[in-house]
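Retro notes
What went well: the complex prediction finally ran end to end.
Inputs used:
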Amino acid sequence: MSSLLFGQNGEVEDIHPCDDPLLKIAQLEGIKSIPIKDMYRFKKLMKSCEEQGGGKQIEQIIYRDWERDFRRAKLMDSWTSTFSICVFLVAIYYFAGLVLATT
Amino acid sequence: MKSQIQVLIFCSAIWIGELTPAQPNLSLDLGLGFYQPTLTGFDENESVPFPAGGILNRNLLLNWGIYYEFFSNARVGYTSFTSIEFGKLGLINSAESVFRRTIRYRLFPLETFFRWRPKIELNFTLSPIWGRGRITVDTSPGDKAEDWNFLLNSFGSSDPMDEMGTTDAMLVDWLGYAGMIGFRFYFSSRIGLDAKMGFMNNYYNNENWRIQTVKVTGPAMTITKIPIFSIKVIYGLK
């Protein structure tokens, strides 16, 4: 009767936590793609998915996130390596000067 | 056919993974810095007894910053190191005036990085500095100029102030540069702990202080070529 009056579907569809779109986003685009406001819900989803037998799926999400980060930042691109070497040399020059000046 | 579909799904997953951002593109950090300046103008002042120097008001810096990854393996941002001191001073007309001093090192860093291990990052930072020193003193309403002149004379000025307005603070700006090498450990893909060591070179001149529109002599401070260490917690926003 109420569904007729308010024009809403009274049946609530029960989605398995492992099939939640938030976990799909994390799987495909990484955990950092999840907005901060959804992080609490994401953590809860991960926990309930793990409890309902989706342990491997969660492990995979976390593993792929680390792998993606590592793969992207393992090697320096373009001018960044030259810049890093310059900073390193400047720092070494400064600290060597400091040590020599105090001895 | 089935294996071809699996290969297609696997390759698509890798391709999608390549397009998506990896490191936190926008991150906030909060932490502490440590350095050892020589604040002769305060510690060896013979006329005004400034609050005693200690680790909290001499060596500790409060640090916050925001970084944006604008290029693969490179970030730009803003980070601020602030040294704070407050206490009570005995000036001519005020029995006990509240004194506040801040030295703020505002850095605009360019940082490059790479991941040495999946959870460990090494980073290299070079940054210009826009520093600012600020001293405020609560003085008696009728005797502001006299109280301020007493303080300024202790730094080397000779009665520069005739009258004072309601907002009374002495300020100085200077430029400099800093270089740092850092180590970052990621606890998760968003949260990490970053430790840096490096140096700061500030072109501070105690003749450049100003109070309202009058140029005055400020406290002598040695903040050129000083080593600096920092430790902070990073949170990746996106």
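What we learned: Confidence is low (pLDDT under 50) at residues 9-22 of chain B.
What to try next: split runs per interface for comparison.
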